[in-house]
Amino acid sequence: MLKGAYRLSKTDDIAVSLHHFEGQGTMPGGLTPAQFAANPYQSDRPFDEFTGRRTDGSIKYTHNDGVNKFELLTYYTDSFRGSHIEQDGSGTTAGQRRLTAAPRSYKTFAVEPRYSRLIDSGSVVQEVSVGYRYLKEDTKETATRSAYYRPRPGFDAYSLANPAYQTSKGGTTAHAFYIDDRIDFGNWTVTPGVRYESIRSFNDVINFTGSRVTSALQPKADANEVLPTVSVMYRMNERWSLFANAGVSFGPQQYAQLAQSTNGLHAEKANTYEVGTHYKSEVWSGELTLFNIDFDKELQLARSIVGDGQWTDLGATQHRGLESALRYELAELNPSLKGASVSASYTYTQAISKAGVFAGRDLPFYSRNVAALGARYERGPWTFNADLYAQSKQRSPGSPDTGAVYITQEDATGRLGNIPGYATVNLRAGYDFGKNMSNLKVAVGIKNLFDRRYFNRSVDNNGGKYVGQPRTVYLQASVAF
């Protein structure tokens, strides 16, 4: 990563960044309940792996004279991702596997100018902002798979021919126009805004066997949406404030959704509402937020136990709950406790289907209750932390197909069934050597102190049960210069 900035004048700056990374790794794959009971850390996926790389750069020009502010941002990305995943057979190929791959690349260019003006009339201060974003993205993907084989010791699936059976070439052109006005008067801040998005996507898909084309699909999706928002804040005093937000969020179809759907999907759109309060003093700080998110049509990948799935309209869903956090400095109780503090956070979420055969039931893969407790002590160059994290059970009920049963008991594959909640304890101690040693910081810690055994599930091609992180001791160090 390389970043640079240059001050053209007292009011004008330009910043440039360049970034590149490459990564590769192997993936263990999920386990059946029998495999998990025998050894939760084993893997029967010797060929599952991923690779990826990305290069991106950006240039940003800023003018700010205290009244007028103008920003011009442009960026470009060139990325690639690939993987090999074994896919289980079914029916006549039960007990066999084939090796699949789907290398894909993305190129994106975007430019966004934004202008803000400060208007001070004495009793009312406004900051009006207008902007526009243009984005152009191109993507290419090739899907390949080998013939079926029976896994056995010493067998190398990479040695098999892995011919292509599908190619796709897609693109997106998107425009966004937005305006908002932050209005400060008395103890109030009101910010109305509106955003207009126009997005056009396509994905040309060709299926073939050998050199013979068997089918061709050219799905397209156009979306034009007006997204209003408004936020209100009232300052009770310099420490305590109340706020409320309302808005409309929007997500267009992705390439995979276009290629894997035959029933004409809709863009995801949701109405979001928040109301809450913030408080901060030298001793206490805390926040409480109530939220409600209503989707008219949420999308879900309806995937069978083996093979590819189909994206489908899950239908209306509702996500509601509360987020809270609290922090207290213990020096208020006794001066000898200076540097010590305790904190707590709690989130309650209820996310349920409002339509379909699973109406009224929890959506998959989320916890209704998530909580954390923490204690921190700073003395001189030392810092000590102790944290408790806990979450309640999750669901993996299966796809909401017509006539489907909401599954709560674990099935034989390990993909479906409830996921028990768990709690872990973490400890950490750090030492700051200060400026004389180039701000060297060293820390040692333990994650999952009591080696709590927990797991998650996946319903992908390499799905099943995945064991959670065991007791882990780590050492970290950093130097600033």
In short:
This protein has 481 residues and is an all-beta fold.
Q: Helical proportion?
A: under 10%
Number of helices: 2
**Global mean pLDDT:** 92
The number of strands is 23
Q: What is the name of the CATH class?
A: Mainly Beta
| Largest sheet properties | 21 strands, antiparallel
Q: What is the fourth-level CATH superfamily?
A: TonB-dependent receptor, beta-barrel domain
Distance between the termini: 16 Å
Shape assignment: globular
Number of domains: 1
Q: Low-confidence stretches at least 5 residues in length (pLDDT < 50)? A: 303-312
Query: Roughly what fraction of the amino acids lie in strands?
Result: over 45%
Structural class: mainly beta
Provide a descriptive summary of the structure in words.
This protein has 481 residues and is an all-beta fold. It has a single domain (2-422, 432-438), classed as Maltoporin, Chain A (Beta Barrel). The chain is built from two helices and 23 strands. It has helices at residues 33-38, 255-259; strands spanning 2-7, 12-26, 49-64, 68-88, 97-101, 104-120, 124-145, 164-185, 188-209, 212-217, 220-235, 240-251, 268-280, 284-302, 310-329, 340-353, 369-379, 382-391, 422-432, 441-447, 455-458, 464-467, 472-478. Strand 9 (188-209) and strand 10 form a beta hairpin. It is globular. The two termini are 16 Å apart.
